[in-house]
Write a structure and sequence with these properties.
8-stranded mixed β-sheet, Aminopeptidase, 21 helices, globular, alpha/beta, Glucose Oxidase, domain 1, single chain, 7-stranded mixed β-sheet
């Protein structure tokens, strides 16, 4: 039976792969006319997007700061020049006090001057390591004013008591391999160090630490009462300092900082292309990015900001010329501060979340070959899976196929390249959950909005002084903007007239996902295999039902029967597991457990209890815990949630999941049904 079933499944894999590819090549025109696709391809400009990116990278765009506001003003100016008369600004308090759902508002941070000089004993300047005006990344975010001359002491990681054994750091500047925020409690408050000099490495990839000239973005805590400052330096500079200290040399630094953490305001620029259909115009297809980041912050994330602005310009232009019809649903564009402002926005303006049907989020979409970037299109967590994700992947397949044909020297009507950019194929990977930006907020269980997340990973220069505009590829920007604009145009126009093409799309997708689920679960034990099969079936039912959100009159009974048949091919379908308690989300506490610069769960549960939770220390624990909370709906038991998690991530420990949800109930995030 197993061998016969495996052969059958292999045939399904081949069939699904062929049919999905064929749909991408020939069927996209059924979702959007070829003339409209050609109009989008011709109008979208990687050059225009790159020029916008060049301008954005001139600003050190810390949340709620003066330079963030300057970048926001740039976006407003361009939107108005493109003919948008719907430009507005959401203004939200950045006061360091107020809790909005699970995100505590952080204060604004403004800097007017910061330099770090090595000096001789008589105060003579020898060499400069930190300079706010030239390289603002050399000052750690949320540093306070200081004017001090002090000796340097190497504390290594500086995160444990043993790192300070036998060392006098009081009144000194400590050199550490850790992020400033992770050592400030010990180094500054317990042992009395005057300041921090950090050479924390870049985010881990195959290339991390190979370039020892990189200076990484550093952070201090946003909510502390005590003043503190920290500078960032490169691994190469740190090694040279360490060698001198080993030789017994005394090294003095003079640090001068003029900076302030103060009450400010998050400003989120927004604009819309209003929907034309009265019954659908309140529904919104939303573009999102994040405008904040240190200078230069080119790929992260001037690229996403420039790409959605180019998508806005392109859609506006083609609608005005009649190449595209006026969208039936409203298309919205947002430029917030990463995660924190999005969390606050959805808490303050719940109607935005209620109206939003899908979010197209772009964060790092322009990395050229030197960055080693791999472009990815994630459709988000399976807890919010719907038909819009299959549309996103159909657009992805279309661009992959045509860009590869162009790079291979074949004739194609859609080369999708910029004259100032590369000609490489896109070869975008298609993924499910990939966390780390604002899309996590929209898709979180509090709002449950389906998302498309376009992003580069790896990128060897992320969060460093070499995340430069010169490393961004106009062709990548053009392709990202095209993909977003095409997806938005499709989603904003879907009605019952599209029922047939949506059903055809899902027929291929249902079978392909079953083949993937079957292959993934081959090594599972019988219980976990049954859980994975059940999880597949539950997810597919959710996706099939979502077709009616766009085309209400669609007959989905055939698709429902297909998924049920596939789920029971190797035996009787598993029954839904009802073991364990049933929780519901506390409606007064909305958001993810970890925001930006603030962790709700750590604040409310405590560091010791948080670190003791087994789920968070397990493989993929961050993602699993995120999804576990997303699946809480007042109907699912802990057992059913475990089945869904097993289908998505592989076998999970139900005891660990139950322990995590119990912990959330102890801080009132969850309530017993």
């Amino acid at each position: 039976m197993i061998k016969t079933f495996t052969r059958f499944a292999s045939a399904i894999v081949v069939s699904a792969a062929f049919s999905t590819h064929a749909f991408a090549a020939d069927g996209l025109a059924a979702l959007i006319p070829e003339a409209a696709l050609k109009g989008l391809a011709e109008e979208t400009s990687g050059v225009a997007a790159k020029r916008t990116l060049d301008e954005i990278t001139l600003y050190h765009r810390t949340r709620a700061s003066a330079q963030f506001d300057q970048a926001a003003d740039l976006i407003i100016t361009k939107l108005k020049s493109y003919g948008f008369d719907t430009v507005d600004i959401f203004r939200l308090p950045a006061d360091g006090e107020t809790l909005y759902g699970t995100q505590k508002s952080r204060p604004a941070w403004n800097v007017s001057f910061a330099e770090l000089w090595e000096v001789a004993g008589d105060g003579t300047r020898l060499s400069k390591l930190g300079d706010w005006n030239a390289r603002p990344l050399t000052l750690a975010q949320d540093s306070d004013s200081a004017d001090i001359t002090a000796a340097l002491v190497d504390i290594g990681p500086g995160t444990s008591e043993t790192d300070y054994a036998g060392k006098d750091v009081k009144g000194k500047i400590v050199l550490t391999s850790s992020q400033p925020a992770t050592v400030e409690a010990l180094a500054l408050r317990r042992y009395g160090a005057a300041g921090i000099l950090s050479y924390a490495a870049n985010q881990k990839s195959a290339w991390w630490q190979l370039d020892d000239s990189l200076v990484r973005w550093g952070h201090l805590g946003s909510f502390r009462d005590e003043p503190a400052f920290a500078f960032m330096t490169s691994l190469g500079e740190a090694r040279a300092l360490q060698e001198r200290l080993r030789r017994g040399e005394k090294i003095l630094f003079h640090a001068k900082v003029d900076a302030v953490r103060e009450v400010g305001e998050y400003r989120i620029v927004t604009a819309t292309i209003p929907g034309s259909e009265p019954k659908l115009s309140n529904e919104e297809i939303t573009f999102s990015c994040h405008l904040d980041h240190p200078r230069p912050g080119a790929n992260d994330n001037a690229s996403g900001c420039a790409a959605i602005l180019e998508a806005a310009r392109t859609l506006k232009r083609l609608i005005a010329t009649g190449t595209l019809p006026q969208p039936k649903r409203t298309i919205r564009f947002l430029w917030p501060s990463e995660i924190e402002a999005t969390l606050i926005l959805l808490n303050v303006y719940p109607e935005l979340a209620e109206n939003t049907k899908h979010v197209i989020h772009m964060d790092m979409v322009g990395g050229g070959p030197v960055t080693k970037a791999v472009f990815r299109v994630s459709r988000g967590p399976k807890s919010t899976a719907d038909v819009s994700g299959d549309i996103a992947w159909a657009v992805t397949d279309f661009v992959n196929e045509h860009s590869l044909a162009f790079a291979s020297g074949q004739d194609t009507a859609f080369p999708l390249y910029s004259p100032e950019g590369g000609r490489e194929p896109l070869l975008a990977l298609k993924e499910w959950l990939s966390m780390g930006s604002d899309h996590d907020v929209f898709a979180a269980g509090s709002w449950g909005i389906p998302v498309t997340y376009m992003h580069d990973w790896p990128d060897r220069y992320i969060h460093t002084t070499k995340d430069l505009a010169a490393n961004v590829d106009p062709t990548k920007l053009k392709r990202a903007a095209f993909m977003g604009a095409a997806q938005a145009a499709i989603l904003a126009g879907l009605t019952d007239e599209d029922a047939g093409v949506l059903e055809k799309l899902e027929q291929s997708a249902v079978v392909a996902r079953f083949a993937e689920a079957l292959k993934k679960s081959q090594g599972y034990n019988a219980e976990d295999r049954a859980a994975a099969r059940l999880g597949y079936w539950l997810t597919e039912q959710h996706i099939i039902r979502s077709i009616k959100d766009y085309a209400p009159e669609t007959d989905t009974s055939g698709l429902t029967a297909l998924t049920s048949a596939l789920a029971s091919l190797d035996g009787t379908p598993a029954a839904i597991t009802k073991e364990g308690p049933v929780y519901q989300r506390n409606p007064a506490i909305k958001g993810t457990m970890n925001g930006f610069g603030y962790s709700y769960i750590e604040d409310k549960l405590g560091t010791d209890k948080l670190s003791a939770l087994a789920l968070l220390s397990s493989q993929h624990g961050h993602e699993i815990s995120y999804e576990a909370l997303n699946y809480v709906d007042g109907n699912r038991s802990v057992g059913e949630i475990c089945d869904l998690l097993t289908a998505e991530f592989g076998p999970v420990g139900c005891e660990a999941v139950g322990e995590y949800l119990t912990a959330l109930a102890s801080i009132d995030v969850l309530m017993m049904d």
